[in-house]
């Protein structure tokens, strides 16, 4: 018999509570416009170490450091290229992360021992207020166990990290739904290391020389480049829904489609990302839909890609990684 009630991490909207836990070196779940983060004082290596422990994430994978204003980038990064300043003017706060040569104040643990640091201004009012009330920046990966689907609500964080974080700041559902786009300068080129909430098209409107270099590797520089990532427990197959329905018709099937619903006797659950065919709406729905399907007793999840434009690129990237063998 269990005598003690299980400890539930409290979910709330109290910035002061979140701030005092963070000042004491504890972990707090924070809302952002992309996905929820698992935050710690980025300047405190003991606090940051807990992020890796709680996520089960290898320490060679660097973390993103969150600040409340792009003007703070120069505190943590060496000289900012003009292109980065221009992009920051357009996209901060927002789902764009800048990889820059780091200053020594950033602990090696945050950058995976490397000499660059990833900086971002998250576009969420609660987290911006929280950051303003602190005198340190926040290191925060997505608040999911390593390799699993990213959380887009406070409840998702609680479901998976209950008792392992001190507090979860509830800012409602994440409005973008996929992680930030990660960029760095190489010569005159802006290199995209991870496709995300800022589309390639909108980057090119501000700075045309954009090169996309998202490789899928099992030993990458950065976790977002891991071949298998964002993965549900139930195996996921990517392709044309009607073909996959025929191929797996002897199994219990969960369907993740872009705009259409499908009829087939093998279907036991179904999620449509955007009936209007809107890529931004699809991104907002992606991870929650994937989680719901993963909680069914389906044998297999079948999914289709979106057109490769706008946030469709980021969605397809996450689906490909979710489908990779793991
Ligand atoms: O939207 C987001 O970016 C969310 C929210 C919480 O801010 N955070 C997030 O963190 O997705 P995480 O740890 O799951 O992914 C970190 C990504 C890696 O995939 C990698 O591409 C990049 O940030 N990264 C971090 N530091 C880097 C560095 N020094 N060099 C290259 N890439 C880096
Ligand atoms: Mg992540």
Keywords:
single chain, DHBP synthase, Rossmann fold, 2 domains, eleven-stranded mixed beta sheet, four-stranded parallel beta sheet, 10 helices, 15 strands, binds threonylcarbamoyladenylate
Task: Characterize the overall form.
Answer: globular
Count of spatially separate domains: 2
State the strand order across the main sheet. Answer: 1-8-2-3-7-4-6-5-9-10-11
Rg from alpha-carbon coordinates: 20 Å
CATH superfamily name of the largest domain? Answer: DHBP synthase
Ends apart, CA distance between termini: 36 Å
Structural class: alpha/beta
By CATH reckoning, the class of the largest domain would read: Alpha Beta
| Strand residue percentage | 15-25%
Write a structural description.
It is a single chain. By secondary structure, the protein is α/β, with parallel strands linked by helices. It has 2 domains: 10-176, Alpha-Beta Complex (DHBP synthase); 236-323, 3-Layer(aba) Sandwich (Rossmann fold), CATH 3.40.50.11030. It has helices at 15-23, 45-55, 73-76, 82-91, 125-132, 154-161, 200-206, 241-247, 279-294, 312-323; strands at residues 11-12, 28-30, 37-41, 64-66, 96-101, 116-120, 138-139, 167-169, 181-186, 189-194, 210-212, 236-238, 253-257, 267-272, 300-303. The strands form 2 sheets. Strands 1-8-2-3-7-4-6-5-9-10-11 form an 11-stranded mixed sheet, with helices on both faces. Strands 12-15-13-14 form a 4-stranded parallel sheet, sandwiched between helices. Bound molecules: threonylcarbamoyladenylate and magnesium ion.
């Amino acid at each position: 018999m269990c005598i003690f009630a299980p400890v539930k991490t409290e979910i709330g909207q109290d910035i002061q509570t979140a701030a005092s836990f963070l000042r004491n070196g504890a972990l707090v779940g924070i809302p952002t416009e992309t996905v929820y983060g698992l935050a710690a004082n980025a300047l405190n290596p003991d606090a940051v170490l807990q992020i890796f422990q709680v996520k089960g994430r290898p320490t060679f994978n660097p973390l993103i450091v969150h600040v409340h204003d792009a003007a703070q980038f120069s505190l943590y990064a060496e000289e900012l290229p003009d292109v980065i300043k221009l992009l920051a003017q357009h996209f901060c706060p927002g789902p764009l992360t800048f990889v820059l040569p780091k200053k020594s104040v950033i602990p090696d643990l945050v950058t995976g021992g490397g000499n660059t640091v990833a900086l971002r201004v998250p576009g969420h009012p609660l987290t911006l207020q929280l950051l303003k009330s602190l005198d340190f920046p926040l290191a925060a990966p997505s608040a999911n166990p390593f390799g699993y689907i990213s959380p887009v609500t406070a409840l998702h964080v609680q479901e998976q990290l209950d008792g392992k974080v001190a507090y979860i700041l509830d800012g409602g559902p994440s409005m973008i739904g996929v992680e930030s786009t990660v960029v760095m300068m190489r010569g005159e080129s802006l290199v995209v290391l991870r496709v995300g909430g800022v589309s390639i098209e909108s980057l090119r409107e501000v700075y045309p020389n954009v090169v996309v270099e998202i490789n899928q590797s099992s030993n990458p520089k950065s976790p977002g480049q891991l071949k298998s990532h964002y993965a549900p427990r139930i195996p996921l197959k990517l392709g044309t829904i009607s073909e996959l329905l025929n191929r797996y018709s002897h199994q219990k099937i969960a369907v993740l489609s872009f705009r259409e619903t499908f009829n087939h006797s093998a279907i036991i659950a179904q999620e449509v990302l955007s009936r209007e065919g809107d890529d931004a709406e699809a991104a907002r729905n992606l991870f929650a839909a994937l989680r719901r399907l993963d909680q069914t007793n389906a044998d297999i999840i079948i999914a289709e890609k979106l057109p490769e434009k706008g946030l469709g690129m980021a969605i397809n990237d996450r689906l490909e990684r979710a489908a990779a063998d793991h």
